[in-house]
Specification:
- This is Ras-GEF domain-containing protein.
- InterPro entries: RA_dom (IPR000159), Ras-like_GEF (IPR008937), Ras-like_Gua-exchang_fac_N (IPR000651), Ras_G-nucl-exch_fac_CS (IPR019804), Ras_GEF_dom_sf (IPR023578), RASGEF_cat_dom (IPR001895), RASGEF_cat_dom_sf (IPR036964), Ubiquitin-like_domsf (IPR029071).
- One of its GO terms (biological process) is Ras protein signal transduction.
- This protein is of the alpha+beta class and about 700 residues long.
- It has three domains: about 75-200, Son of sevenless (SoS) protein Chain: S domain 1 (Son of sevenless (SoS) protein, Chain S, domain 1, Up-down Bundle); about 235-495, Orthogonal Bundle (Son of Sevenless (SoS) protein, Chain S, domain 2), CATH 1.10.840; about 580-595 and about 605-695, Ubiquitin-like (UB roll) (Roll), CATH 3.10.20.90.
- It contains 28 helices and ten strands.
- It has helices at about 1-10, 50-55, 75-80, 95-100, 110-130, 135-150, 165-175, 180-205, 210-220, 235-250, 260, 275-295, 300-320, 325-335, 340, 345-350, 350-365, 370-380, 395-410, 420-435, 445-465, 475-480, 490-500, 505-515, 550-555, 620-630, 660, 675-695; strands at about 25-30, 35-45, 65-75, 445, 585-595, 605, 610-615, 640-645, 650, 670-675.
- The strands form two sheets. Strands 5, 6, 7, 8, 9 and 10 form a six-stranded mixed β-sheet that branches.
- Strand 8 and strand 9 form a beta hairpin.
- The longest helix has 24 residues, at about 180-205.
- The radius of gyration is 30 Å and the shape is globular.
C-alpha cells in the first residue's frame, strides 16, 4: 500500500497551489525579530525517464522526499543579515543579490557593514565554545558577502575624505580574518580613491579658455564652419544621441532608481546623480526639438518649418531603428508639446507618409492599458540583434523589409537604450503601494524582492547597451550645445507669433478663465501629451516623479510638471500588466470626501494612491486599506468601491473578491465613494434619463 501511495504521488499532477518546480507555500512562521514564509519542496531522486521502468518492478530506494524551506519575509537588520546564510550555513546567492541591491532604503553602508561585523563576531564566539562546522561555514559565507559587496558596489565605499566603511573593513579584516585578502583590498581601494579625489581637484582648478577657441576659429579660414541643422543627416543625429544616451544609461546605478531614493526630490537628486544625468539629457533633447522648430518666428515660412518637423520625425525613426527609446521619446515629447503641436498650418504641410510614421512612432508610447505597447516592444527587442519594424503603410512597410534584409546581410547588431522613466515609475509605484515597515515594526523584505525584479530588468538592458559602436562627433555636439532653448513663456509667445490663436479659441480660453478653469500647458483635447522633462524658466530643473502617485503612473506629462512612463514587465511574469501576478497586483485608488467644491458644487476627489491587491482581498478589505491610506477613521460598510472604465464605472459587489471581479483589460483605476453619495448620483442619473424621455 505504501509503495502504491508513493507511485501515485510521484506520477500524479501537483495541486493548484504548487509551483512548477514542486514548491508550495505551507505557512507563515514568526520568531523574535523575523517573519518567514515556509514552503514545502519536493526533491525527486528518480528521473522521469526511469520512472516507467521502475514502476513495473519492486524497488526499495527513496524516490523523492519533501524538504522544508524558509524564506524571510520581514525582519530587523540583524535578522536580515543572518538570513544571508541558509540553515546549512551556505550562501543564499539569490537573497544576497536582492539584499545588496536594495538595502540602502533601510540602512546606510556603514550600518550594514557594522551589522555584518557584529554577526561575524557572534558566530566566532559561538564557534570557540562549540567548534561547530555550521558556525565556520556561516563565517565563510559572511566573508564571501563582504567580498562580493566590495567588488560589485564601488559607489557604497566612496565616502571621502575619511572612507569610514573601507577603514572599518580594513581594521576588521586585519584583526579578525588575517588569512583573507580583504584587508589589503580595502587598503588599496582607499589609496586609489584618495588619488582620484586629488586628481579631480587638480582638474577643477584648470582654466578653460573656450573664447580663445572661438577666436582661433574666426581667424583660421580653413577651419571647418560650425554645423547647422540642415547640414546634419538624420542618421548622424540619431547615432550621436544614442552614443550619449547609451553612455549615461550604462552609468545608471540601479539602486538610484528605487522609489525611496529617487523620490527624495527635496534633495535635488543628490542621492541619485546617475538618474539625474539621464533625465537632464532627455530634457535637453526635448527642449532643442522645440527650439529648432520655433526659431525665426517672423520670417520662416510654414513649408520651411514643416521640413524641420519632417526632419525630426525622420531622426525619431532612425532612433527607432537604433532601438534608442530614450531620445525617441524625447523627440516625440518635443514635437507633441503645445507650442509645436498647435502649429496646424505647419503640420498640414508635412507629407502624409511622414505623418503616418509620426503616428506610428507615437503609438509606441500610447497610454492605453498602462503603456502596454512600449512594454511589449521593449521586452521583445531588449536583446534582439535589430528592431522588428512594422507599419500599416505599404510604402513604409516595403522600406522596413528592405532595411531588415540589409541588416541580416550585413550582420547588423544593435544595442538597446530604454526609456528610464519606465523603471522610475514602476519602482515609485511599488514604494507607494507597499510599506517599508510592517505592523510589527520589521523591515518589509517582500517589498524589496519585488523591487529587485525591476532592477534585474534594468541590469539586463544595461548589458545590451554595451553593444553600440559609434564614434564621437565633436562638431555635432558643438552645434547641439549652441542651440538656444526657450522658457515655457517664450515658447508659447513664439508659437503664437508663428500662428496667432484664432478668435474662437481665444473666446473659449476667456470663458474658461471666467469659470475658474486654469488652462494647462497642453490642450488635452487636441494635444497628445508625452514626456519626461520639466522645464522651469531656466530649464535647469530635472524631471522628478510627482508628489502624487497618480501623476507618476499616468502616461502623460506637461512641460511644467513631469512624469515617468510605466514599467518593463518582469521576465518571470505571465501577465501583460505590471505588478500583476497570479496572486497580486497594484491598483490606483482615489476617493471622494463629503466636502463640496465651492466652484463645481461636487464632492472633492482626492488624488490617486496605490495599494497592493491580493487575490484574497474582498471589497471591504480593499476599502479598509484605502481608508487607512487616506487616514480616514470610518467604517468600510459606509463606502462602496467602483472601477473607472472608459465608458463609465463598474460597481464592485459588497462581498466580491476584487482581484477576480475587476476588469483587467483597462487601467486598474478605482474610486471609493460614500454609499449615500453613490445613491444620490444614481438618483440624479435616473432623473436625467426621465427628462430625456419626456423631451423626446
Amino acid at each position: 500500500m505504501g509503495r502504491q501511495l508513493n507511485l501515485q504521488l510521484a506520477s500524479g499532477r501537483m495541486s493548484k497551489q504548487d509551483d512548477q518546480d514542486g514548491t508550495r507555500f505551507w505557512r507563515e512562521e514568526r520568531e523574535e525579530g523575523a517573519v518567514y514564509n515556509t514552503y514545502l519542496k519536493r526533491v525527486t531522486y528518480l528521473s522521469p525517464a526511469r520512472l516507467e521502468d521502475e514502476m513495473v518492478r519492486e524497488f526499495s530506494h527513496l524516490m523523492w522526499e519533501t524538504q522544508k524551506l524558509r524564506v524571510i519575509k520581514a525582519g530587523t537588520l540583524p535578522r536580515l543579515v543572518e538570513a544571508l546564510a541558509t540553515v546549512r550555513g551556505e550562501l543564499d546567492s539569490s537573497y544576497m543579490n536582492i539584499f545588496l541591491a536594495t538595502y540602502r532604503t533601510f540602512a546606510t553602508p556603514l550600518q550594514l557593514l557594522q551589522a555584518i561585523v557584529d554577526r561575524y563576531h557572534l558566530l566566532r564566539s559561538q564557534n570557540k565554545r562549540g567548534k561547530s562546522e555550521l558556525f565556520e561555514q556561516q563565517q565563510k559565507t559572511l566573508k564571501c558577502v563582504l567580498s562580493v559587496w566590495l567588488d560589485t558596489y564601488h559607489e557604497d565605499f566612496r565616502e571621502s575624505p575619511n572612507y569610514p566603511c573601507l577603514t572599518l573593513l580594513e581594521n576588521f579584516a586585519r584583526e579578525v580574518i588575517p588569512d583573507s585578502d580583504l584587508a589589503s583590498r580595502a587598503h588599496n581601494r582607499i589609496e586609489r580613491l584618495k588619488k582620484e579625489a586629488s586628481s579631480n581637484g587638480a582638474e577643477n582648478i584648470q582654466f578653460r579658455f573656450s573664447i580663445c577657441d572661438e577666436v582661433d576659429r574666426m581667424i583660421d579660414e580653413e577651419a571647418p564652419k560650425p554645423l547647422t541643422f540642415p547640414d546634419i543627416s538624420p542618421r548622424l543625429c540619431a547615432e550621436q544621441l544614442t552614443l550619449r544616451d547609451a553612455e549615461l544609461f550604462k552609468k545608471v546605478v540601479p539602486h538610484h532608481c528605487l522609489g525611496a531614493v529617487w523620490g527624495r526630490r527635496d534633495k535635488g537628486g543628490k542621492d541619485a546623480p546617475s538618474v539625474q544625468a539621464t533625465v537632464e539629457q532627455f530634457n535637453r533633447v526635448s527642449l532643442r526639438v522645440i527650439a529648432t522648430v520655433l526659431k525665426h518666428p517672423d520670417h520662416l515660412k510654414s513649408t520651411s518649418r514643416a521640413r524641420l518637423l519632417q526632419k525630426w520625425i525622420n531622426i525619431a525613426q532612425e532612433l527607432r531603428e537604433l532601438k534608442n527609446f530614450s531620445s525617441l521619446r524625447a523627440i516625440l515629447s518635443g514635437l507633441q508639446s503645445h507650442p509645436v503641436y498647435r502649429l496646424r498650418r505647419c503640420w498640414s504641410a508635412v507629407p502624409k507618409e511622414t505623418i503616418v510614421l509620426f503616428d506610428e512612432l507615437s503609438d509606441i508610447f500610447s497610454g492605453e492599458n498602462n503603456q502596454l505597447n512600449s512594454r511589449e516592444l521593449l521586452m521583445k527587442e531588449a536583446t534582439a540583434k535589430f528592431p522588428d519594424l512594422d507599419s500599416q503603410n505599404k510604402s513604409l512597410k516595403r522600406k522596413n523589409m528592405q532595411k531588415r534584409r540589409s541588416w541580416i546581410d550585413n550582420g547588423t547588431v544593435q544595442g538597446t537604450v530604454p526609456y528610464l522613466g519606465t523603471f522610475l515609475t514602476d519602482l515609485t509605484m511599488l514604494d507607494t503601494a507597499m510599506p517599508d515597515i510592517t505592523d510589527d515594526g520589521l523591515i518589509n523584505f517582500e517589498k524589496h524582492r519585488k523591487e529587485f525584479e525591476v532592477l534585474a530588468q534594468l541590469r539586463l538592458l544595461q548589458s545590451a547597451a554595451q553593444i553600440y559602436n559609434i564614434q564621437y562627433d565633436n562638431r555635432f555636439w558643438e552645434w547641439f550645445d549652441s542651440i538656444r532653448i526657450y522658457s515655457d513663456t517664450e515658447s508659447h509667445e513664439m508659437s503664437c507669433a508663428i500662428e496667432p490663436p484664432s478668435e474662437s479659441i481665444a473666446k473659449i480660453k476667456k470663458k474658461s478663465a471666467s469659470l475658474g478653469h486654469k488652462p494647462s500647458k497642453f490642450d488635452s483635447s487636441s494635444t497628445p501629451r508625452l514626456g519626461f522633462f520639466c522645464g522651469g524658466e531656466e530649464h535647469n530643473s530635472i524631471c522628478s516623479i510627482p508628489d502624487t502617485i497618480a501623476a507618476s503612473i499616468g502616461p502623460l506629462v506637461t512641460i511644467s510638471h513631469s512624469s515617468s512612463t510605466s514599467s518593463v514587465l518582469s521576465s518571470d511574469s505571465d501577465s501583460q500588466t505590471p505588478f500583476r501576478s497570479s496572486d497580486t497586483c497594484v491598483i490606483r485608488v482615489s476617493m471622494t470626501s463629503g466636502d463640496l467644491s465651492p466652484d463645481t458644487k461636487t464632492h472633492v476627489t482626492h488624488v490617486y494612491k496605490s495599494i497592493m491587491l491580493n487575490n484574497t482581498d474582498h471589497t471591504n478589505t480593499v476599502i479598509e486599506k484605502v481608508l487607512e491610506k487616506y487616514s480616514i477613521d470610518d467604517k468600510p460598510d459606509n463606502f462602496c468601491l467602483l472601477q473607472i472604465l472608459p465608458d463609465g464605472e463598474l460597481l464592485i459587489p459588497e462581498r466580491a473578491n476584487v482581484f477576480y471581479a475587476l476588469n483587467n483589460s483597462v487601467d486598474l483605476n478605482f474610486i471609493v465613494r460614500r454609499r449615500s453619495e453613490q445613491e444620490s448620483l444614481k438618483d440624479r442619473k435616473k432623473g436625467r434619463r426621465r427628462l430625456k424621455k419626456l423631451s423626446l
